[in-house]
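User: For my dataset I need records formatted as: sequence, then C-alpha cells, nothing else. Please produce one.
Assistant:
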Amino acid sequence: MGMNVANCPRCGKIFVKGFAEVCPNCVKDLELQYEKCLKYLRENKGTTINDLSEATAVSIKQITKFIREGRISILHAPNMSYPCEVCGISIRENTICESCRSKLVKDVKNNAEDERRRAGLADKEAKVSFKIQERLKDRH
C-alpha cells in the first residue's frame, strides 16, 4: 500500500495526506485561528465579520470557511454575515445570494432552451437535406 503524499495548499510543504487537506502544522494553525474566533465571538456578540477578522488577524475568507463548515454558527450573531461568492454582497446562508441564484437558474433554463432549439434546427436541416438527396437520386 503506497503512501499518499501531497503539497500543502496553504504552506507548500510535502505531507502524508490523511483526513486533513492540509499539513499537520497548518491544521494546528487553523485550530488556533478557530479558537481565537470563538473566543472573540463569545466576548463580542454583536460583532461583524470585518471586526472579527481585524481583531483576530484571521482572514475573512477563512472565517467564511469556518461558517460554511458549520464550525462557527451565526444564528445568534445578528451582525455577522459573509460575502456572496459571485457578487460579494453580504449574506447569512448558502454560498450565493438570492439575486445571483435567480440569475443562475435563469441562465441554465435559457441554455437548455437554446440547446433544444439547436437540436430542432439540426433535425429540420437533416430532413431537408435528405429530401433534396432523394430528389436528385430520382432524376438519375
